[in-house]
Design brief:
The protein has about 110 residues and is mainly beta. About 5% of the residues lie in helices and about 55% in strands. The strands form three sheets. A five-stranded antiparallel β-sheet has the order 1-2-9-4-7. The chain has a three-stranded antiparallel β-sheet with strand order 6-5-8, with no helix packed on it. A two-stranded antiparallel ribbon has the order 3-10.
Length: about 110
């Protein structure tokens, strides 16, 4: 979990015995360039849906992608990416499999 975000657990991990996890992420601090660290997640599935505002990431081999309210992406397992910005009112729904996974800075 990152200190520039507030997380609201939706209880999916408990309901699925760790098979999946879902939470709402609200950005509570303005984006700063030092927060844009290239990384990847060791997981099987990750979906992000933008509830409010916008969120932008640069994906290896794909380029910049911007989520806006009402849009989503399925992030390929292990893809290297860097967060490049978000709006002050950004709020996201994230669903991941499995619930416990590793994030690796590249």
């Amino acid at each position: 979990m990152r200190d520039y975000s507030a997380y609201r657990d939706l209880g999916v991990a408990d309901a699925t015995s760790g098979l999946a996890h879902a939470h709402v992420i609200r950005m509570i601090a303005p984006f700063r360039s030092e927060l844009g660290v290239r990384h990847h997640h060791n997981l099987q599935f990750q979906m992000v849906y933008c509830l409010r505002g916008w969120f932008e990431t640069e994906f290896e081999g794909v380029g910049r992608q911007r989520l806006v309210a009402g849009s989503s992406w399925v992030q390929p397992p292990g893809i290297q990416h860097t967060v490049v910005g978000w709006s002050d009112d950004c709020e996201l729904l994230e669903i991941i499999l499995p619930a416990e996974h590793q994030t690796v800075n590249d």
